[in-house]
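Two records follow; treat each independently.
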Amino acid sequence: MLAVEDRFMIKDLHRQGMSISDIARQTGHDRKTVRKALDEPLMRPRQPRQTARYRLGPYVAYLEKRIEEGVLNASKLYDELKQQGYEGSRSHLRAFVRPFRTLRQTQATVRFETEPGEQAQVDWGHFGYINHHGHQRRLYAFVMTLGWSRAMYVEFTVSADAAWWLRCHQHAFQFFGGVPREVLHDNLKTAVLERDNGGSIHWNPRYLDFAHYYGFTPKACQPYRAQTKGKVESGVKYVRRNFWLGLQFVDLWDLNRQARTWLDTVANVRIHGTTGQMPWGRLPLEHLPPLLGKPAYDTSLISHRRSSTDCLLSYDGNYYSVPAAYHSQVLLVRETEQDELIICTGQGDEIARHRLSTAYNERIIEPAHYQGVASRTALRQPAPATQLVLTTFAAAHQEAAPAVEIRSLELYERLAAEALV
């Protein structure tokens, strides 16, 4: 059964536009549990019941003494009481201990502050939907906050996949002019593949390679301990409440342009409530290791596709030509941040480069890819969209038609009458 705080968090996330699946991933609850929490009232009526204190009777004094000593494990206390003759249920004991555990969990904590240049905290926020290239897409905000200066970077994307996870990190480092010693984040699949029973983390290999390239240490929060990265959690709320409210924008590019202006004129020049100083003024004192012209890490989205016999490769609903020598082969495909599609051999050697199409079911043809192909093969290209290119190509390779003698139809009629005689 979910606690009131958990049901409130689920309802609040849903109110902000997050889907049931996203809420389940973020909170760790099953989708059925999330859906049930959304359907039920926040506060359930409590049924009158006999108190655990009354049922435990003569053991209360002993329990209070053990709890004061720091023992809050109900199973351990249950075993101890059984040795003293307790015949009640384990659930009664748990009910007695629960208020003390809640009190311990909600005690005041000391704010954790990091040294200059030590840490950045990262998080995604979901901001509804956007029409992007004619399609309805989810809209995300990537937020990175430097722990000491509180300098912030924000970028809106229509994807939170592995490629954009790395790209947004890279853009943030360029924005700050350097790289912190460690980056703290949730247990996202783009960073953490899994945790074993012993708590060991199995990292996403590409993210580790990215971290090694830029020289920072990735850190993942303990599960269900979002307050560990409270600085960036507050940053996402700040974006939502200060920048997002009442905002009007044309497209994704315009949205990010406005976000960059907001960072430069509002977010990073305000007097921060905790530090009492301007984040932009504290940023140089972070002493982040500079990038020093380091080439950008290749954040291409990498996949493999098999080319067809007509020298076409299917990718994201469209078809792109490859040189004829590479038909019917499994090829490596890289989608770059610059919206280019680079097609390579299995060994990584580039063989074709196309501009990524934002339409659907288009055929993007490079005529040179069909040089040396027999005309009958070229004429079998199936797409009307390529008809002009292929007609020109076929005309250049069309063989001369043989000469045919023109005869009168009377000749054929006479031959047919003679055959009947």
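The next record belongs to a different protein.
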Amino acid sequence: MKKKLIVQKFGGTSLSNIQKIQSAANRIKKKIKSGCNVVVIVSALGKTTDYLQSLINKIDINGDAREIDTILSSGEQASSGLMALFLNKIGINARSFLGWQIPILTNKSYGKAKILDINVNFLKQIIKNGVTPIIAGFQGISEELRITTIGRGGSDTTAVAIASKLHADRCEIFTDVDGVFTTDPRYVKKAKKINNLTYDEILEMASVGAQVLEPRSVSLAKKNNVPLIVKSSFRNIEGTNISKARKIIEKRNVSGIVFSKNDSKITLLGVPDKPGVAAKIFGSLARKDINVDMIVQNISVDGKFSDLTFTVSENDLFRAKKSINKIKKEVGIKNILPDSKVAKLSIVGIGMRTNAGIAEEMFKALAKEKINIDLISTSEIKISVLISRKHILKAVNVLHKVFKLSDKIKK
């Protein structure tokens, strides 16, 4: 019988000290002894990447991106070596590999490189020879033969990409939480673990602020139909299964509530209402790799001007304002009003596709608590609103109660 092939990814919180590395190594050994082939992807230990970034910031935050990638990728190199060392100590034939050794080929977008291809023939031979590969996540190699990194949370993307190319039976993402919850349990005591989610649901959750999985990894898993499981590194309990369709039919319209306090709002007053203006504004932001999320435009009564409001990451607020200032006179913008005291709140659920009245229920609940809504955006299975940051805790708890997310799921 052909052995199952499992890809296991361990995040930084799962490897923050020797005891946790030992615990992860024992999990890997248990899976191998159960008769599976295992490929392991590791992140940097604990807060290593943050520490390395702080050193970079002290020298030159805007330095050569290629050198910055070389520095940031070193954390995963240490993790892969330590894990291989520990596995060999407990009787598992393991070997560490860096992205360039596989190789994991990427483009030249240093800092957020895109994976172009992975040489799985090499990995298949390693596995055939009875070796368990321990692969440094988050990194690859460009056509310039330079080390690249694929963005924060990139180890998730590495794991899913390798699982896809190897046609693995599943990809297990180990983290410091028990799975995906109805909302952040640090803010809502009655938050519950969700047993099953679709790719679409977790993709929407990840895209609006849920930090359990990196959005690109979910998109890749959906595209290649890679079964995902998010589970705890520290407790032997069932995690959250993520697949194309629900394993059970749940009578729940909203699956979870996600919020982000890392958003900022920019309002442009007196923007000439004529063709090409919006393209110039958002084009200037795109050229600086600044992502824009929610957008609302209000046209004046005479139809000559509009007020344009949109959101960007709080980290991009200064750069976004600077970019727009450069084209302010050219475009004819009268004023720029930045606001960093906002938060984005989203409800997500596959049941929203076929059930009306969810938005009304959400808006009524917020209105009852006198929480004003600045912006609204929707998709088939998501409603996002922008509110004052000071109201976010109250809003999350209210909506969690309104949509009965603490209740037992009816089948």
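Discussion point: The longest helix spans residues 18-33. How would you locate this feature using only the token line?
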